[in-house]
C-alpha cells in the first residue's frame, strides 16, 4: 500500500509555492540590475515609456527558433542533441506532473492509451533523456574544454547539474518503490519495473519507510532545483529566451545612433560610448545576465583565434562580474576590458551570429571603442593616422600614391545625371585609392556597359564614413553621412551600386536613420540579376575551380550569401571552404583593422587565404574591395601567381570573346 498521504502532497505543494516565489524574487532582482542601464533604442528616457522599446524590439521568430528550440546549439551536433534531449524530456516531464495533479480530482490519468503513452512510457523516456543530456554536459564541463575554461568557467554549473542528476535518480528510485506495490500495475515504466524487482524481497516496514523517504528526497530536491533557478546559472533557461525575444531583427551588428543634441540627465556630464555599466543599454546588461560563458564566441572570433588580446567571452565575463557586484558606476570597467582588446575587434559579427542566447558582444565592445575615441581621444596610432586623414582629405588611406581619378584613366566613364541616369555607381575610397581595387571598378564598367545598364559616377570620390563609425568616431561618421545624403537628394539619386561590402552596409543600415531613402544594391547581387535576366551572357568553364570568401558585411551582417554563388557558378565550378556563408572566417580588415590588426600569433588574412588554398581551387573570389585587398596582401607569400579576384573580374573574363582567362 502507498505510504504517501494527501498531507504529504499538501506540504510539498506549499514548498513548491515557496520555490516559485524564490524564482520570482530572483528574476525580480536580476530585472533590477538590468534596469540600471539606459533605455533601449525606440524608447524614451522616461521609465513609463520603456515598455515601448521592449515592444518595438520584440522578435517572435528569434524567441521561437533560438530561445525555445535552441536552433543555434544545433550547429554543434553533440551539444545540440544533448540539449534537445534535456529540453524535450523536461517538456514531457512537466506536462506529466501537471496532468498527475488531476488525479486528486478523481481523473483516471493512468488508464487507457493516454496513461500508457504519456504517464508511463512517455515520462519514463523523458527521465532517461534528461539524465543522458545533463550527464553529457556535466562530463564535458569536468573535462574543462578550452572554450569553457578560457577566461574562467562560470561557477555554479557543476553543482546545479549534479543536483539535476540527483533529482532524476531519486525520481526513478521513488518510482521503483511505488511499483513494488502489487496493487500498482504499469506496462510502460520499464526502468522503474526493473529497479522494483530488486526491492520485492525487502521487509514491508523497511519498504514503507524507504518509499516515503525517497519520495520526500525526490520532492525536496525538485523543489530546491526550482527555487534555485533564478539564483544560479540555471537562470539562462528563462533569461536566454527572453534575450532572444529582444534580439535585433536584422542580422549582424546594430549600433544605436547617438543623439548629439541630447541634454545630459540629472545634471550629469554627457559622455560618448561606454566606460561603465550605467553607460550601456538595458539590452547590453541583459546580454551579460544571459551569457552562459560557453566560449562559443571565443571559438569563432578571428582576433581570439589568431592570438590577439581580444576574447569576446572575456569581455562578457568581465562585464558580468561587474554586474553581479553591482559596480554600475565603476569607470574602471573599460580599462579592465582593455584598449588593445577593444580595438582588436574586426566587427565581423561572428560572435553575434554564434551566440546561442542572442548576445551581441561586438556591440558592447564598440560602445567601449566609442568612449576611447570620442571621450578619451585614444586609439592605436595607425588608426589615428587614418582617422586624421579621413578628416582632412576625405579618405583614410594614408600615404597612398594614387589620385582619385587614376582608376578611370583612358576610359569614357559617364557622370550621373539627375532624371536620366538609373544607377549611381558608387566608387568609394578603397576603389579610388588602392591600385588593386581599381581593377574592380574597371571590370564593373565593362559589365554595366555590356548589359546596357544606365549608370553614372560622381565627379569626385568619397567615403561613406564606415571607417569612422566602426573605429568609434560616430561624430565624424554623421558629418560624412549627412553631407552625402544631402548631395544624393539634390541629385535625385534613387539606386546605388556598391563594390564594397562596408559601403553597402553603411548605406543600407545606418544612412536611413539619418534620412536616406534610396535603394542600395551590392555589385555581386546586381551581376547575378543581370545574368539571370539574360542581359549578361557568360561562358562557363567547368574546369575552372573557384572558391568564394564571404565578406562578413554581406553574409553575416546582411544575409547575402546565395547571389554571389549563383554568379560564380555561372562561370565555373564552385568549391566551398569549410567555413562559409554566415559561418565564414573574417579577412581581418573590418573595424579599422585594415590600418592596424597587428600582434597575435598570425595575421587573420593569412589564415583565411590558407584555408582557401587548401580547397584546391585555382581561383579565390570575393565581393568586397577590402576583402580583396587583405587576401591579395597574403597571396604573395604563396608565389607570384595571382589567385585572388573580385567576382566582377571573373565574370568579365567569362564574357564571350574575352579570350584568355585571368592570370
From TrEMBL:
Keywords: 4Fe-4S, Iron, Iron-sulfur, Membrane, Metal-binding, Oxidoreductase, Transmembrane, Transmembrane helix. The keyword Mitochondrion does not apply. It holds the Pfam family CCG. This is 4Fe-4S dicluster domain-containing protein. It comes from Aromatoleum anaerobium. The chain crosses the membrane at residues 6-27, 81-105, 125-143, 155-174. Residues 282-313, 335-365 form the 4Fe-4S ferredoxin-type domain. The keyword 4Fe-4S applies.
